[in-house]
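Progress narrative, Year 2. Work on chlorophyllase from Eruca vesicaria subsp. sativa advanced from sequence curation to structure prediction during this period.
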Amino acid sequence: MATMEDSETFYSAATPLAFEKGSLPTAVKSADPSAADLTAPPKPVRVTYPAVAGTYPVVLFFHGFYLRNCFYSDVINHVASHGYIVVAPQLCKIMPPGGQVEVDDAGKVINWTSKNLKAHLPNSVNAKSKHTVLVGHSRGGKTAFAVALGHAATLDPSIKFSALIGIDPVAGISKSIRTDPEILTYEPESFDLDIPVAVIGTGLGPKSNMLMPPCAPAEVNHEEFYNECKATKGHFVAADYGHMDMLDDDLPGFVGFMAGCMCKNGKRNKSEMRSFVGGIVVAFLKYSLWGEKSEIRQIVKDPSVSPARLDPSPELEEASGYLV
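Result:
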């Protein structure tokens, strides 16, 4: 079994395929709101899709606080290469809106994907409407949870979701200062969700970076989100990485500069963290959408196969009561 060394990438000989880039080439298309185009999205979107004819599930990917959707291109491309259409809206411009506004805007984008996404894809690429997935990072993770819990007043109620994944989700600055809508109840298994949920956390997210406060503070971070989920649920924590370490390298502009320095970052190669996050998303979607359980169970039973060191031990609690 491989061991973890600072100078080496941490992979076992039996690394699950989910941690590797998929076999499908991908393409990216951006679309902006336009009064002259009836198929235009309500918010700017970046759509990454397999550049191979087929019908694929849709993954909504919500960015974190003050971040840009293009900052996640490596992780999103990883997911899309395994056979998913990833729609990443830009929910803020200069300053983030109020929390409820952001959730309602997310609902509008989801409605758009249901009705008009096809107009922005090649003729040979189609969306599988039966499978729509919510994924989000940081505040975007909280947005994904809020939408799944029914807090988006704008959402077409006929739209159903197949899975939910929070990447280091954050609900506010502290337990007493949370963003609207306040979805955390601080009661175990209180989230009224009937879909599989995975929560990805970071070991350094709750730690301060010099004079900056933690980016993923205790009591409003991944631990509480996971605690309030019901089975089926999974929990995966990258111990040596920080809240922003899954973003691309060399982020542009002032926002990119701030994203690189405001949180406590890990000292290991960020590419390993991106492979970890993309791989957990892919493995959990295989499990949730297709019933392919082997890879996610392998990660739980043998955490050494992960590109990132997992601590505490990963968990997968299935609705049947089976704890992997």
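The chain has seven helices and eleven strands. The chain has a mean pLDDT of 94.
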